[in-house]
Amino acid sequence: MTTTAPRLRADAQRNRERIVAAAVDVISEKGPDVPMEEIAARAGVGVGTLYRRFPDRHSLIREVAADMFERVAALAADTVANQPTGWDAVVLLVRHCAEPGLGALSAALRPWLAEHRDRDTELRALADQWLQGFEQAVRKAQKEGAMRTDIGGGDLLRFISLVTCRMPELPEATNRKATTRYVEILIDGLRTTA
Amino acid sequence: MTTTAPRLRADAQRNRERIVAAAVDVISEKGPDVPMEEIAARAGVGVGTLYRRFPDRHSLIREVAADMFERVAALAADTVANQPTGWDAVVLLVRHCAEPGLGALSAALRPWLAEHRDRDTELRALADQWLQGFEQAVRKAQKEGAMRTDIGGGDLLRFISLVTCRMPELPEATNRKATTRYVEILIDGLRTTA
DNA sequence: ACTCAAATGGAGGAATTTCCTCCGCTTATT
DNA sequence: AATAAGCGGAGGAAATTCCTCCATTTGAGT
User: Model's pTM, two decimal places?
Assistant: First the structure.
């Protein structure tokens, strides 16, 4: 093994990062089927450059998804470890995941992920890790008696991806305000009914 | 006026209805941009037939939307009039609108409606009627002190269309169960916090 | 039963969209 | 200054979708 890692030239590395960032943006807005040209344009780069770095759509989206999972998994682990109660952890996790960037991306990526979960073990592992972070927090909160017991970690994820759906026809500010309000309602609904 | 209404032949009438029903189905599942061929196929009809009845996509979707609005507006008026309290009305309305058929369709149609609201007065009138039914119920419930006051009728509609989003990659039974659970959570979240 | 206007299906050409390679020019690195 | 890596984006190939057209079938009136 160890074919010498073919290090990228500085400008190429920069462009690569721009492409991924652009993909996150564009995919969040318009889903994973968005034309490659559009991603390239958003990155300020020619299609050629995009295709050299990511030979097909799959490899690009895969990178975007993996990045997202890593970010979130770390966040989840950290949150669960450092919050005093399970309920606090759940609330914090929900709030974080509902933040504009993350929420929109995960919602947009959901169908694509569902379709490729089976064929990509590594990706599935990352997804499961995320899920398990949630489940852990949920179970803890439920054991504390703070959270209703008919909800699992998966439900919570699905719920978040719903609550964070953008409505692209409305101004962004409206969307953002709506989402934060919905999140609060959701959290209220998750509590044990007194 | 009164150009003699050109009555359709019996079979043509039947096919027309099939087409609309198929459009409702397919659009609910895949959105308003679904190929016409697919709608025709689902209706068990050739594209030619579809195009004779609805010369373009707009006229077909318009019919689907108008049908939906009429159904819902009637329901809303009836509910508000016949429920003892505003809160009861809100709960019932939410439950009805979240039923599989209606919920999925309205969610799928939302972007299309947003785009055409401006150009189609009649359609806008119907949409507004729906909204006002909700607002009336909401205000009443809030006056009773049963419902949190930071939510308007529009929020409620948006919320419903979120909660009823299908996840086509999951089995239908799962979706359905999830939705009913979400609706209950939502309703709990709407109550005045004790 | 017979007639004919109405209705039908779906093949297929036109238009559009998206993909992705290719190559002449530019730029980082040594 | 040399050179290998990187770049943009024009443009041909392929896929998708639209929508017309007409040979054939079918319902309705007599």
Answer: 0.85
